[in-house]
Automatic annotation (TrEMBL):
Signal peptide (residue range): 1-33
BP term (GO), one: extracellular matrix organization
Gene Ontology MF annotations: cell adhesion molecule binding
GO CC, any one term: extracellular space
Domain FAS1, first and last residues per copy: 237-372, 405-530
UniProt keywords, alphabetically: Signal
Name of the protein in its database record: FAS1 domain-containing protein
Amino acid sequence: MASSARRKVAARLGVTVVIVFFLGTQFAPSVQASEDELPVVSYINRETSGKKILPDFASIQLGESVPEQYRAAANRFARLWKEHVTGIKGYDTVKDVPFTLIVPDKIDETVFDGNEPKIREFLLEHVVPGALVEVKDQNTYLNLNQHPVHVNLSCFDMLMAYEINQSAKVLTKRNITEHLSLVFIVGNLTESDVQSSSTNKFNKRNIQETNRYNEPQRLEMKNATKELALSKENRIGQHLMNFLAGMKSGTKVFQHFLSSSNLSNLMDDSSYMVFIPSDTAFQRWHPIDWGFYPFSVQEFTEMVLRNHFVRTKQPLRMADLRVIHGDQRYKTLGGEYIVLKNKPSPNVNNVTILSDYTLSNGIEVFILSEVLFVSEAVVSRLHQMHKDKETPPLLAFPWFGAQFLSHSFLALERDTRFTQITRFLNTAEIAQFISGSNYTFFVPTDEAFERYSFDLLPDSVLASEKGIKMLLNHFIRGRLYDRDLKDGELIDTIGGMPVKIQRSFENTVRVNTARIVESEVFVYNLGTMFYTDDVLYPDLLKDEVKAITDLKNVDRNVPDSIGGSDVYTTELNPPLTDRPTTTSFRSLYGLLTTNADVELVPLEVTESNKRNSDEDSSQFQDDEIITPKALPLRYFYNPKK
């Protein structure tokens, strides 16, 4: 009985093993394939992928459409295109599809040896169909050879710049027509293959096999393999973080920057030398009260960190450094070179090594007195590129609770182009609406205000409810950059009215009807100003402007009647004539005068004094009569009957 039961169990187990083995053999290839499959990349111009189309720019003189320093490169590319690509069989030339030409600064035609297919493949490698390429970090397109064209932000000589396919530095971009733009680069997209060997067959198959472009990754993940990129924890990086966490003081700033980056994912199981600047070293670059802190620029900080890591087979210990003869030179993960010396004391690039630690997993740690590869010149150039990162001084005037508004006001006050907007800001009480920071301000020039006669408006109008609303329609909550002003986008203002962004193919940007004449005027790290040539929503004050225009046609010394049947005059005995009463003058009379300016005297009260007044006046000669302008006017009126 027991043996029978055991046989049944064994039989069932055998069947189960067979089924599992069968399923394993069926699904193993698909699982393996999924593991080897490259990540899916979303190409911006995927709609034109696989289409054999060519741009039509035969009638366009590329050289005449770009600045002089880029004309030679544009003309060279256009000439090669005309000679080797125009009329190519199997491709259709289209006019209504956008294209981007990626123009190398130099093309060495000798490497082609007159080979027509080589030149053609080279040119097609530099054409992106279906899109006007935006030079923006992590944008990826496909060129006419169906290869990725990946834009990323990287560091060149310790300064940030854009590059394509992690090799060609971007110089500039120019929009030529509505459907054509040029991106000028240093080098070319196939430089490594073309220059490696003159006998290399430059055909489509070889491009696909030997010129495997890296798939797009985050800036911090540059050159990381797929396995490391997917790994959330790395043993080497984790050991280093544990070491820094155990340090009571002195390395907290480096620990903070390292934990905020993905640098540890670049580290494999090799041995490393890690150079850690002390907190005092970082503190040197921190502004005392306000100013620019270079490590507020994330990409720069990431590159600095990379240049403090050295991958090596055998780390150099401090004991070895003290007795070794000569300099020891190493290349960092960021591509810079460091030199270790033992005289006059152990140092790296002439920076003193304060202490050293040997970790159990093959990491040698050196604590430094300074940050490597950071100098006054580097920080100054970085500052010019990132003025939006600069911290401001705290202002108590004019509006303590509105720092963006205060700094904007002071900056505009120093510019003679903005006397009207500073008067507007000084008059209207808007600090309560623009408190703190993180704003965008569209600033009209004086010419824009004068175009609508706003310069004639009194302060009382600017401070009125309509005046404040018009001013607030020039402010947006949230800091915008030029790249954020996208064509066709509607953005709500603090005044409640939306503004529409219009960006032409010539890169001219308009906000409603106002053209931006100066872009990205940074107000420290508080916000951004854009100078415009027009006022937004000027119709809000059109009635007040019309009243001012009407007043200019009226004799201000003898004003018209102001209200009802009451007659106001500067004459003691006014002529009995009916004068028309206008609403515009009544409103302007109230705007331009105050109670202190005008004294109203009933006409009948003054009749009894008329005789005495005539007698007194006869005692003065004409040239002795003085009417000071500072004295108030006396208006006489007849009360309503």
